[in-house]
Design brief:
The chain is an alpha+beta fold. The chain contains six helices and five strands.
């Protein structure tokens, strides 16, 4: 599996659908809502999800982010909020350069990703990801974007 490592420069990088406007975004609140959402899921729903892929997904263009707005309507809101059905698209701006891993393997188009091959390719690029590591949490810990 072929991967490339590059640097994503500080500045605007894309768009994120959200239940909060950027003016009201609070990392701790986002993290807490994410935990609550996981707690609300049934055991069966959690088993269906692949724990290797949690993360903050950013669309390169605004139209793609619009397609995810339905995921955020009514989430993180109190029932008495007057704008209970509002979701937002926020611009995402990096405040510093970050390491970026790019993998254009055909398996990403089908969803049948060979996780062992991916982790081996990362190790070959001196990114220490072990077989037992959950991919996105580990890459976040190592300060890589994927």
């Amino acid at each position: 599996m072929k991967i490339e490592i590059s640097v994503l420069s500080a500045g605007e990088i894309g768009y994120k659908a959200s239940s909060y406007s950027a003016d009201n975004w609070d990392h701790s609140k986002f993290s807490e809502e994410s935990k609550k959402e996981q707690e609300r899921k049934t055991e069966e729903e959690r088993k269906k999800e692949d724990e290797n892929w949690p993360g903050l997904y950013i669309a390169e263009v605004e139209d793609v982010a619009e397609g995810y707005l339905y995921n955020y309507i009514d989430k993180g809101k109190k029932k008495d909020d007057k704008d209970d059905k509002t979701a937002y698209i926020n611009k995402v701006v990096l405040t510093k350069d970050v390491n970026l891993i790019t993998c254009l393997d055909e398996s990403f188009k089908t969803g049948n990703i060979d996780m062992n091959a991916l982790k081996k390719a990362l190790c070959e690029k001196e990114i220490p990801v072990e077989d037992g590591d959950l991919l996105m949490p580990k890459l976040g810990e190592l300060q890589y974007f994927f």
